């Protein structure tokens, strides 16, 4: 039989172990609760940071994208624009006292060549610009120019979208390198007045409600006021570079025309002969 002293020692030891167990349990429970609260707090903070935009905003953005049908300009699919226009209204800022008057809100509708041909024509335009101290610009055949609407850019885009639904895809064919008598028709590739090109121009005038003189389709190679003698020499050089048997692979045109499957809307105030303000506004696929 154990002695009373030894029994008391065992009782004290068991009581101590019991108290230690209770303390550890209480500490564990409190720590778990605190961690859970911290985790919940972090989760709620994360929820606030990633709250999605309202359905109304998303719908408006989608509608605007669909309405404009603005296509990308990646890679070599298109001759690169001078620049893409900024937000509406930033171009037509009021001039400061003594400054030149603001440019008019004028737009043009372009049919632009793509791929290898587009890059070749872009290079030829750059070559002539450097040679004659003139501005460079993306290659294009103007379908309709000098477009001005009371509603500004947004109205132009809306009408262009309507037009694109009425015009079928067509082909542009070059006929010759020639020259004109004005700045914007200095040296250019004349374009055949085929049914597709003429029908597209006529529909554009009808939809925009604009009356113009007879349509002369062409793809400009040089904007300049150089004398006629220099224009004639530039034409001769252009014929050799683009069509001559001795021309190099880089300049000899890979094709004497191109397919038109979209219209590009450009901000093109006529008074800005430097072209510094010219910029791409949008592009619409032809689905007529």
From TrEMBL:
Stretches of Low complexity bias are at 53-67
Would you indicate the residue range of the signal peptide?
1-26
Care to name a GO molecular-function term for this sequence?
A: 2',3'-cyclic-nucleotide 3'-phosphodiesterase activity
Positions of the UniProt region annotated as Disordered: 53-81
Could you name the domain of life of the organism this protein comes from? Eukaryota
Keywords associated with the record: Signal
What biological-process GO terms show up in the record? Answer: cyclic nucleotide metabolic process
Under SUPFAM superfamilies, the record lists:
LigT-like
InterPro entries for this protein: Cyclic-nucl_3Pdiesterase (IPR012386), Cyclic_Pdiesterase (IPR009097)
Which PANTHER family does this UniProt record tie to the protein?
Answer: 2',3'-CYCLIC-NUCLEOTIDE 3'-PHOSPHODIESTERASE (PTHR28141)
Q: What is this protein called?
A: Cyclic phosphodiesterase
Natural source organism? Chlamydomonas incerta
């Amino acid at each position: 039989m154990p002695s009373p002293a030894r029994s008391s020692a065992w009782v004290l030891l068991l009581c101590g172990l019991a108290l230690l167990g209770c303390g550890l349990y209480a500490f564990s429970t409190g720590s778990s609760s605190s961690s859970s609260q911290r985790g919940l707090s972090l989760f709620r903070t994360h929820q606030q940071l990633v709250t999605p935009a309202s359905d109304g905003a998303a719908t408006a953005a989608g509608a605007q994208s669909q309405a404009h049908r603005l296509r990308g300009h990646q890679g070599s699919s298109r001759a690169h624009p001078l620049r893409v226009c900024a937000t509406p209204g930033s171009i037509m800022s009021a001039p400061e006292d003594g400054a030149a008057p603001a440019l008019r809100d004028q737009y043009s509708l372009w049919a632009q060549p793509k791929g290898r041909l587009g890059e070749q024509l872009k290079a030829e335009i750059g070559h002539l610009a450097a040679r004659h101290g003139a501005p460079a610009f993306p290659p294009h055949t103007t379908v309709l120019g000098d477009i001005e609407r009371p509603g500004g850019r947004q109205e132009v885009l809306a009408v262009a979208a309507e037009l694109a639904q009425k015009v079928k895809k067509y082909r542009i064919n070059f006929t010759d390198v020639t020259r004109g008598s004005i700045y914007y028709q200095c040296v250019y590739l004349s374009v055949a007045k085929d049914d597709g090109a003429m029908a597209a121009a006529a529909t554009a005038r009808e939809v925009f409600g604009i009356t113009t003189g007879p349509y002369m389709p062409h793809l400009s190679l040089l904007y300049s006021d150089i004398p006629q003698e220099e224009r004639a020499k530039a034409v001769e050089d252009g014929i050799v570079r683009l069509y001559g048997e001795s021309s190099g692979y880089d300049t000899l045109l890979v094709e004497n025309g191109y397919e038109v499957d979209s219209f590009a809307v450009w901000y093109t105030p006529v008074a800005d002969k430097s072209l510094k303000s010219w910029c791409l506004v949008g592009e619409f696929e032809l689905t007529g």
